[in-house]
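thread: overnight batch results

M.L. [08:02]
morning all. the overnight job finished for the chain we discussed friday. pasting input first so we're all looking at the same thing
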Amino acid sequence: ARPKMEVSVLALLGVAALAHGSPGSGFIRPPRGPRVVITATAIATASLELSSRLPSLVQAMPVEPLPKPPMGWAGEVVVLFHGSGGPDKYTRAALRRIHAQGTRQLLRPRLVVAPDWSRYSGNTLTAAYNGQQIGRDVASAIRALGADVTSVHCVGVSVGAFAADTCARAVGSLKGDRPSVRLTLLDPFTARGVLDWGYGTRNFGHGVDFAVQVLNTDDPVPSTNSPLPHCFCYDCTPAKKAWNLPPDYFGHAWPVDLWSKRFVELPAHGPIWRRTSRLPTHDADRPRGGVKVISTRVPTLV
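M.L. [08:03]
and the structure it wrote out:
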């Protein structure tokens, strides 16, 4: 990813140089007015792209150490990455849902992690790159738990998708006997920096065992309104009508809101007395790139 970003910036600077080059260089220069505009635009765009990347390269972004696994832990890790600015009421409700799933289904205790990276997620220009750095750091902490980790479920809200996807793919890239890895993206923001508006579309969900996107398509947040080809997608946009949500309801919050109400996790291990795998898979019912439209109040999201 880094070389592609650097090539993009160099290309913009090259455009500026050609537009402002000498008459004897062999290139046809535009008139002075457009030439100034082209040069200024290329340099400004390149500067913005570099500034979006720079904090994650030079700034330390410490995350809290992982909590100690609970007694009786079966090796399941669930990580929830909040969206821009910090956890809101819907994200906190989703976290309660994750905890409640383990209690209701008589599972062995799981390790639930919710990193607070609000300090680095508030700037739209830098949040994607910062999130990837946070995701790599959390993945390193998970790997440090050793062979006891049997499954990892990364959940990303909005721009938290960059942290969740990076964490999931870093764990999934381990060689040998690695944990099973699943990814859930709740109305994910997919643009990275100024230039790469297709990053999430190309990459989110690639290389993980099971990837789900919960989507709302009619909100004004850019780069969040299309299905992702490497994920199975639940389009919950029509379900807002079934829930009688008010007209001024912020649609970008709807996927995490609905997920916190209707998510049912198929655990990596069954009840205490059974250790048979029950992880969902990308089968004929939930293929990568498939879309299921949710229009009722009683969907089951896995």
